[in-house]
Design brief:
The protein has 511 residues and is an alpha+beta fold. Helices cover 44% and strands 25% of the residues.
Length: 511
């Protein structure tokens, strides 16, 4: 715990509002608490999962003063994200210090719906009364660098599967770059696994299997479906990484840390490394806490680590609306009581003071009355000027809106023309390209079809081969070299007894 916090708080409590569990730490010992309650000397930390906020990168002019940055970012966020102007969203930001241009500064902006803070943390506040910090979950990772648990400045990816969410985030040179919620939380993994298995197992059993046996489970059916499940997961992750590389100008990822709230999954890091072709390490760090041999979720340990940082060591991005009241002497009611007590004491000791105060107040009132007359005159004149400027602004805005509408119509027309001229697929060229790949992997093309609907263009290839390895090798080859242009789907490989060959249907959807 930081020195400043040790003087005020003897305990840190972390709350997971989505699971409803709490962990308490004193110095270096951390343990679960089943009956959390408010304590004056307790510092409370919670987090927002990636589904609970929107994050975007916003650029503003370097000429904007620091005092006006929030207003400038707020206006651009409402405009670019098309937020409901009737809702007062909670907005926080951190500067993207490694990204700038000649004229702009860039900021990572986090946006939270007020209903999220009111609804998700009701149970927590009912238990512990106040929450000192509510932090977006990817920002907790900053503590790993501050405490030198990770001491390199490479480009790192962090992937963590929680029960109700899964997040992917990137840090470069020990600073936050990007975060996204993934499709597969532990609950979604469980549902998909049961669907693949064809039978229902409960969520707790599923989590025990992946934590105790992992991808090396002794059940062939389980192992086969685990491999298929994680194949779908890493295909999704690969698409996210491809987008992040392009959007944030990242040349390469140096290392991936991957883990789950159920515990370390045996074989998961090796599978990820094989699939993604990157150095992969378990998301399982030594935080220096004594857990007495009990498994503690990584997110809880990160919250306790983050809570121990000095204010200048962590990101200034706190979404709590459940502040504890200030000390008695700093509250309005406390000040009033202290003033009344002092006044009574003064009245009892020095009655004559009141006569002097009364005269001083009359003199003060006369001075203020004269000053008011001058200020009121200035106010009236300035209001007239402001009203004139507002009228001019509204007229200019109406003209601007008219020009924007005309520009938008022309732009839409040009986009449609561009789509027809540039992006319309050359079917013969595409077929020739795919045929070369089929021949390269000894896979024969039996039939092909092409379909367009709802802006989707899909080629369906009927394939046959003497063995399944050629088909799967072909699929991996196509996925590796054409993932930027196509989404591939191959659901089933069947065996034709009469022809002594394997049949499959490969769909390639043009992006």
């Amino acid at each position: 715990m930081s020195k400043s916090k040790q003087q005020t708080y003897s305990t840190i409590v972390s709350a997971n509002p989505y699971r409803g569990d709490y962990f308490s730490s004193t110095y270096d010992t951390i343990s679960e608490t089943t009956s959390p309650s408010f304590k004056k000397e307790q510092y409370a930390v919670s987090f927002l999962n990636t589904k609970g906020f929107i994050t975007t990168l916003i650029g503003i002019s370097k000429n904007i003063p620091d005092d006006d940055i929030y207003d400038a970012l707020e206006n651009k966020v409402y405009e670019e994200l098309a937020l409901d102007m009737a809702v007062e969203y909670h907005i926080k930001y951190i500067e993207a210090i490694h990204r700038s241009s000649e004229g702009d500064r860039f900021f990572h902006v986090f946006v939270v719906d007020p209903l999220t803070l009111e609804q998700d943390y009701t149970q927590v506040v009912n238990s512990i009364k106040y929450i000192d910090q509510i932090v977006p979950v990817p920002l907790l990772i900053k503590s790993l660098y501050v405490k030198e648990i990770i001491d390199s400045s490479d480009v790192h990816c962090f992937i963590y599967f929680q029960e109700n969410d899964a997040f992917f985030c990137i840090y470069n040179e020990q600073e936050f770059v990007y975060a996204k919620s993934l499709k597969f939380s532990l609950k979604q993994m469980h549902e998909r696994f049961c669907e693949l298995l064809g039978e229902q197992i409960d969520l707790n059993s599923f989590e025990r299997i992946i934590a105790n046996e992992g991808l090396n489970t002794s059940s062939p059916d389980y192992q086969k479906n685990f491999i298929k499940l994680f194949g779908e997961i890493f295909l999704h992750i690969s698409d996210v990484m491809t987008y992040a590389k392009r959007a944030y100008e990242i040349k390469k990822f140096d290392e991936i840390f991957i883990g789950t709230g159920a515990g370390s999954v045996t074989g998961l890091d090796e599978y990820a490394q094989t699939y993604l072709g990157l150095k992969t390490t378990p998301f399982d760090f030594n935080y220096g806490f004594n857990t007495n041999g009990v498994k503690v979720d990584q997110i809880h340990q990160l919250m306790h680590l983050y809570g121990r940082l000095e204010s200048d060591e962590r990101y200034d991005c706190n979404f709590t609306i459940y502040h504890r009241p200030p000390p008695f002497a700093k509250r309005d009611s406390g000040r009033l009581i202290l003033v009344i007590a002092a006044s009574l004491a003064a009245a009892l000791l020095y009655p004559g003071v009141y006569w002097g105060l009364s005269y001083a107040e009359e003199f003060h009132h006369a001075v203020l009355t004269k000053e008011y007359e001058t200020v009121h005159k200035d106010k009236t004149e300035r209001e007239a000027i402001i009203n004139l400027k507002i009228a001019n602004k509204n007229a200019a805005q109406a003209l601007l809106d008219e020009q924007r509408n005309a520009y938008k119509q022309k732009q839409d027309t040009l986009v449609q023309v561009h789509e027809k001229k540039v992006n319309y697929p050359m079917k013969s060229k595409i077929m020739s390209d795919f045929t070369r790949s089929f021949n390269q992997y000894r896979v024969q093309l039996k039939n092909v079809s092409y379909e367009e609907n709802n802006n989707s263009k899909t080629f369906t290839f009927g394939l046959t081969s003497s063995n399944t390895q050629d088909i799967t090798a072909l699929l991996k080859h196509l996925t590796d070299i054409k993932r930027d242009k196509y989404d591939f789907n191959l659901e089933l490989i069947s065996y034709n007894e009469e022809e002594k060959s394997y049949l499959s249907e490969l769909k390639a959807v043009i992006k």
